[in-house]
């Protein structure tokens, strides 16, 4: 059985940020004192364009008794509070959101069945010892031709 926390992490990994926020909020209700749930929820809020909620949650974690949690939350808060860079529209490519449903107008054909090529029959190679048939025959023919040419 997967927990709400695990569902939230999977949703974050696949870019489904609204689903991640909902799952991580459920996880926070189940485990209200878990700093990792709060930190992931803050990142999910940021990814879902809920920046103020993300900053508030990080600020709350900067007062946590565990020094590692304080350090992580301060680093995330530093990133969240950094000024946004001005970017021209032509510098950006719009990436459509990842959804679980197919995009409208996109039809995928049925997958083609790929049949493997037939396996060739094994070729039997006869291994025999050389009996010098060809060289002896050529020498014999040469001798017969030489004798015949000499009588003529």
UniProtKB/TrEMBL annotation:
Keyword Chloroplast on entry: no
Transmembrane segments: 132-151
Keywords tagged on the record: Membrane, Transmembrane, Transmembrane helix
SUPFAM superfamilies per the UniProt record, alphabetical: TPR-like
One of the Pfam families matching this protein, by short name: TPR_19
Record flagged with keyword Coiled coil: no
Alphabetical list of InterPro entries matching this protein: TPR-like_helical_dom_sf
Superkingdom, taxonomy of origin: Bacteria
Signal peptide start-end: none
Alphabetical list of PANTHER family matching this protein: ORF03 PROTEIN
Protein known as: Tetratricopeptide repeat protein
Organism whose genome encodes this protein: Gloeomargarita lithophora Alchichica-D10
């Amino acid at each position: 059985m997967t927990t709400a926390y695990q569902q939230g992490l999977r949703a974050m990994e696949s870019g489904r940020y609204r689903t991640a926020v909902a799952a991580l909020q459920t996880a926070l209700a189940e485990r209200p004192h878990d700093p990792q749930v709060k930190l992931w929820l803050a990142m999910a809020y940021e990814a879902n364009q809920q920046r103020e909620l993300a900053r508030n949650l990080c600020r709350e974690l900067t007062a946590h008794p565990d020094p590692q949690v304080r350090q992580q939350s301060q680093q995330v808060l530093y990133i969240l509070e950094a000024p946004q860079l001005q970017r021209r529209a032509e510098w950006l490519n719009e990436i459509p959101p990842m959804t679980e449903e197919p995009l409208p107008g996109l039809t995928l054909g049925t997958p083609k069945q790929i049949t493997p090529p037939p396996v060739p029959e094994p070729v039997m190679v006869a291994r025999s010892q050389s009996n010098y048939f060809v060289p002896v025959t050529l020498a014999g023919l040469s001798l017969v031709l030489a004798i015949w040419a000499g009588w003529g």
